[in-house]
Write a structure and sequence with these properties.
heterodimer; A: about 260 residues; mainly alpha; about 0% strand; B: about 210 residues; Four Helix Bundle (Hemerythrin (Met), subunit A); 6 helices; elongated
Chain lengths: ~260, ~210
C-alpha cells in the first residue's frame, strides 16, 4: 500500500502552486481579478488590451502552463479517496479525477481567448476585443458543472469515510458539496452586465471564486494530514503482515520438527 | 462488490451505533452545508436591502405587482410540510414506521403545492412581460425565489429519498441520522422562505 501512495505528496502541493499562479498571473497580470466589468464600453476594453498586451501575454501563458497543476492536485485527491476510503468501488474517485481534468479545459480555453485578444490588439476592432474578453469569461463561468462534479463526488466520498476521525472532516466534505452546488448561480451570469450576477458581481465573482479558492486551500491542509495517516496505516498493515508471515513460518518449522 | 463488512481494513473505525446524546439533530456535517447556505442567502438579502435603499420608489411599485396572497399560501404550505416532517422524525424515534411513511408522504404532497403556486406565479409574471431583466427588483425577485426554488426541488428529492429509505431499510441510528438531516435541510428551505416572503412581498417603502 505504501507504494500506492508514492508521488501523492508532490501532487498535493500542486494545488497551492496552481492557486498562487492562477491569482498572480491569470488574475492580476491577466486583468481578470477583478474582472473588467461587462458594462464597460468596448473602447475601454480595447484600450485595456492595447495598453496591457504584454502583461496579458505573460499572465495567460503562465496560467495555461500551470492550469494542469489542478489536474495533478485533483489526481492526488482522487487517489486518497480510492486508497483510503473506497476500497472496491472507484466510481466517485473516477468522477473526481475526470472533474478535475475537465476543469482544466475551460481554464485553458478561456486563456486562449484572452491571449488571442492580446496577440495583435493594435489591428483589431474594439468590439472584437470585447467579444474575445466576453468569450473568455463565458467559457470559464459557464463550464462550472465539471468542477461541481469533482467537488460533489469528493464530498460524497469523504462523507462515507467510516473512520471515527475521518481523513477529511465532514464539515469540509459538506462545504465542498455546497460550493459545487452554489456554482449554479453562474447560470444567471449571461443575463446581466451589471449587478451581483454579472461576471464582476458580488455573487458570481467575489463569492463564487473565493469560496472555491478557500476549498482548495482548506482541502490541501487536510490532504497533508490524510496522507500522513494513510502512510502510517500502510506501515502498520505491512508490519502486521510481516509478523503474521513470520509466525506462519515458525509454525510450519515447528510442525516439521 | 464491497466486502460484507464495509469497515474492514480501516484502522480506527466507528462501528458502534450512534446511541449517545447528540448536540445537533442529524449529521454534524450537514450543518456546515446549512450554515454555508444560510450565509450565502444572508449576503443576498443584504444586497437586496442595499439596492432597495438606493431605489425605494422602483422597489415599491414593483413590489405592488406581486400577489402577497400567493406568497402567504406558500408560507402556509411550507410551514405545514415542515411540521409534518418534524412529526415524521418524532415517529421514527418511537419506531413507528407506518406513521413515518404516512407523514413523509403527506409532507411531500403538501410540499408539491409550493411548486404549483410558484410555477403559476412565474407563468403569470412572464405572461405579463415581466422577467428578471425588467428592473433590479425583478432581477432579485426571480433570482432569489429561483435559487430558493432549486433548494426546494433538492429538498423534495431528499424527502423522497428518506421515504424510500423508510420503506427499504431497517430502522437504526444511521437511518435516524438520515431522516433528521433531511428534516433539518427541509426546515432550512422553510426558514429561507420565511425571510424571503416578507422581504420581497410585504416590505413597504419607508
Amino acid at each position: 500500500m505504501v507504494e500506492r501512495l508514492k508521488y501523492l505528496r508532490f501532487l498535493t502541493w500542486c494545488g497551492p502552486v496552481f492557486l498562487a499562479v492562477f491569482i498572480v498571473f491569470w488574475g492580476i497580470l491577466g486583468h481578470t481579478i477583478p474582472p473588467v466589468p461587462a458594462d464597460l464600453p468596448a473602447k475601454d476594453i480595447g484600450d485595456m488590451f492595447r495598453a496591457e498586451a504584454n502583461g496579458i501575454r505573460i499572465g495567460m501563458g503562465m496560467a495555461m502552463m500551470f492550469a494542469v497543476f489542478y489536474l495533478l492536485w485533483g489526481l492526488a485527491l482522487a487517489k486518497i479517496v480510492e486508497i483510503g476510503i473506497e476500497k472496491d468501488n472507484n466510481v466517485l474517485s473516477t468522477l473526481a479525477v475526470w472533474g478535475a481534468g475537465l476543469t482544466v479545459v475551460p481554464l485553458m480555453c478561456s486563456c486562449v481567448f484572452w491571449l488571442a485578444g492580446a496577440y495583435r490588439p493594435e489591428v483589431l476592432d474594439d468590439t472584437i476585443l470585447q467579444l474575445l474578453y466576453d468569450m473568455g469569461w463565458l467559457m470559464i463561468d459557464m463550464c462550472f458543472w465539471v468542477t461541481s462534479v469533482q467537488m460533489i463526488a469528493l464530498g460524497m466520498a469523504f462523507i462515507q469515510d467510516p473512520r471515527r476521525e475521518p481523513l477529511i472532516p465532514k464539515w469540509m466534505a459538506w462545504y465542498g458539496i455546497w460550493v459545487g452546488v452554489s456554482f449554479v448561480a453562474e447560470l444567471l451570469m449571461p443575463y446581466f452586465k451589471g449587478g451581483i450576477f454579472a461576471r464582476q458581481g458580488t455573487l458570481n465573482f467575489w463569492i463564487e471564486f473565493f469560496v472555491w479558492f478557500f476549498w482548495i486551500v482548506g482541502l490541501t491542509t487536510y490532504m497533508v494530514s490524510a496522507l500522513r495517516r494513510l502512510e502510517a496505516e500502510a506501515r502498520g498493515a505491512t508490519s502486521t503482515e510481516r509478523a503474521q508471515a513470520g509466525e506462519g513460518v515458525g509454525k510450519v518449522a515447528g510442525a516439521t520438527l | 462488490m464491497r466486502p460484507s463488512d464495509p469497515t474492514a481494513g480501516h484502522a480506527d473505525l466507528d462501528t458502534s451505533p450512534v446511541t449517545g446524546q447528540r448536540r445537533l439533530a442529524g449529521d454534524e456535517g450537514v450543518w456546515s452545508f446549512i450554515t454555508a447556505d444560510l450565509c450565502l442567502f444572508a449576503v443576498l438579502f443584504l444586497l437586496f436591502m442595499t439596492e432597495r435603499y438606493k431605489a425605494p420608489a422602483l422597489f415599491e411599485t414593483s413590489r405592488q405587482a406581486l400577489d402577497p396572497l400567493l406568497g402567504a399560501l406558500n408560507t402556509l404550505i411550507l410551514l405545514t410540510s415542515s411540521w409534518l416532517v418534524a412529526l415524521a422524525v418524532h415517529r421514527a424515534r418511537e419506531g413507528q414506521r407506518a406513521a413515518v411513511r404516512r407523514h413523509l408522504t403527506l409532507a411531500m404532497l403538501v410540499g408539491a403545492g409550493f411548486a404549483l403556486t410558484k410555477v403559476y406565479e412565474y407563468w403569470h409574471k412572464i405572461d405579463a412581460g415581466i422577467t428578471l431583466l425588467t428592473n433590479d427588483f425583478f432581477m432579485f425577485y426571480f433570482a432569489l425565489t429561483g435559487l430558493h426554488f432549486l433548494h426546494y426541488v433538492g429538498g423534495m428529492a431528499v424527502l423522497a429519498l428518506c421515504l424510500a429509505k423508510t420503506r427499504a431499510e431497517h430502522q437504526d441510528a444511521r437511518y435516524l441520522t438520515w431522516l433528521e438531516s433531511g428534516g433539518c435541510y427541509w426546515h432550512m428551505v422553510d426558514l429561507l422562505w420565511l425571510v424571503l416572503f416578507p422581504m420581497i412581498y410585504l416590505l413597504r417603502a419607508p
